[in-house]
Write a structure and sequence with these properties.
- The chain has 23 helices and no strands.
- The chain is mainly α.
- Helix 11 runs antiparallel to helix 20.
- It is globular, with a radius of gyration of 25 Å.
- The two termini are 26 Å apart.
């Protein structure tokens, strides 16, 4: 079976995600370099080491199995045994071996990461997430489990959580590919990239058809692909999820698209506090008002959406169209022009993210332009990161230096939540 995370993740995410992913078939080389235990049976251990180096996996597994039977407290040996069993496609035995590694040992973080890989290959996303999170919590500087968390959270359409972990990765590595992923998750229209993630999501759903987060992600994807009737049953549980604004708004959109406006107010829930969330909330509320025939109320909702988030392109466009219908084309023109300008900026950012991903490192000019676009899009931490990359590549670029000094007070996020929000996998 092809390991999860090694296939195409879709357009902008593919380069960043593919560079981060660690396939299950590659796990053994990661930790076969652990030093062997100090023991009296040096000859036996040398034989095991020789078998590993020469890739005589059956012989190495048998030797390690005998070794841990006599030395059950040897965590490094258990880790090696799990790696060889995973390499040989024996996931049950690998899982058993990895679980023997004690939490007090340095090998525990790697063991938990590989347990997550096994659960992911078995298409058990909830168990995989728990394993990756426990590994990341135990090792604040571990890149591997955080990379796998980003992959899983992205497939499950949990971009804010994925971004929090990506900031950790950027802080740890300084790798600009994480900046590209951050900017992509924050700014690229989700509908344009949903199709690329569909195969990965469907594989996970096959293994966990009742998983609430996977079902929610499927509903969001179907809605964005223009299939509200198919999306509706996947999104209906979101009506009672207080902490899932995206799911609730998507549910309202589904119902409105199907001519079922009843219950929209309850599904919308209370107005959120974050400005971008408020903009989305008021924009969707305007659709509910319009469906109920309250055009003036819908217009007022759109104005509140733009007041909360001046870069809400959809609200700007819909407001312009509403003003045209009211016979006010002059008032509509500025709103439509702003919507078009935002769309052009987003399109350029997306195009340059593709270019950066294709080049890998990126030129100073490209990094500075990405910084400008992120700054203009309100992504100030990302902008600061791109300007830092620019100056690192070319310290003589005075424009980037000036822009960086203007963002000196903008903090690069330094920590991600240690656990997911309460809208989580069922145990």
């Amino acid at each position: 079976m092809r390991p999860f995370g090694t296939g195409k993740l879709g357009r902008w995410w593919w380069v960043a995600g593919g560079a981060l992913a660690v396939g299950l078939g590659l796990v053994a080389p990661v930790f076969l370099g652990f030093r062997g235990p100090r023991a009296d049976s040096q000859s036996r251990w040398r034989d095991i080491q020789s078998a590993i180096e020469q890739k005589r996996w059956a012989e190495a597994e048998a030797g390690l199995a005998r070794w841990v039977e006599q030395a059950p407290g040897d965590d490094a040996a258990w880790l090696r045994l799990g790696g060889i069993r995973a390499l040989r496609g024996r996931s049950d035995g690998a899982l058993e071996a990895f679980q023997q590694v004690r939490e007090s040992d340095r090998a525990w973080t790697e063991a938990r990461t590989q347990i997550g890989e096994i659960w992911l290959a078995r298409r058990k996303a909830a168990e995989a997430e728990l394993a990756f999170r426990s590994a990341a919590d135990r090792a604040p500087r571990a890149v591997g489990p955080r990379s796998r968390l980003v992959y899983l959270l992205t497939v499950e359409d949990r971009p804010e959580e994925a971004r929090a972990v990506l900031w950790d990765l950027y802080r740890l590595t300084g790798d600009p590919r994480h900046l590209a992923a951050l900017a992509g998750l924050a700014s690229v229209d989700a509908a344009s990239d949903a199709k690329g993630l569909e195969p990965e999501l469907l594989r996970l759903l096959e293994g966990s058809p009742d998983d609430p987060l996977l079902r929610r992600a499927r509903g969001l994807m179907l809605l964005r692909q223009g299939h509200p009737a198919e999306a509706l049953p996947f999104l209906e549980p979101s009506a009672t999820a207080e902490d899932d604004l995206v799911g609730r708004l998507a549910l309202v959109e589904c119902r409105l698209a199907l001519g079922r406006a009843e219950g929209s107010e309850d599904a919308l829930g209370p107005e959120p506090s974050r400005s971008k969330d408020r903009g989305q909330w008021w924009e969707v509320k305007s659709r509910a008002e319009l469906a109920a025939g309250r055009e003036d109320a819908a217009l007022a909702c759109l104005r509140k959406a733009i007041e909360a988030d001046p870069d809400n392109r959809i609200a700007l466009y819909r407001l312009g169209q509403a003003l045209i219908r009211k016979g006010e084309p002059q008032a509509a023109r500025p709103e439509l022009d702003r919507a078009a300008a935002i769309a052009a900026r987003q399109s350029r950012l997306k195009s340059l993210l593709y270019q950066f991903n294709s080049e890998g490192q990126g030129s100073p000019e490209l990094c500075e332009t990405l910084g400008d676009l992120c700054r203009d899009s309100g992504l100030l931490p990302e902008a600061r990161g791109w300007y830092e990359q620019t100056v690192r590549l070319d310290p003589t670029r005075t424009g980037a230096q000036s822009s960086l000094s203007q963002l000196a007070g903008v903090a690069i996020p330094t920590a991600s939540p240690s656990h997911s929000h309460s809208h989580s996998h069922s145990a």
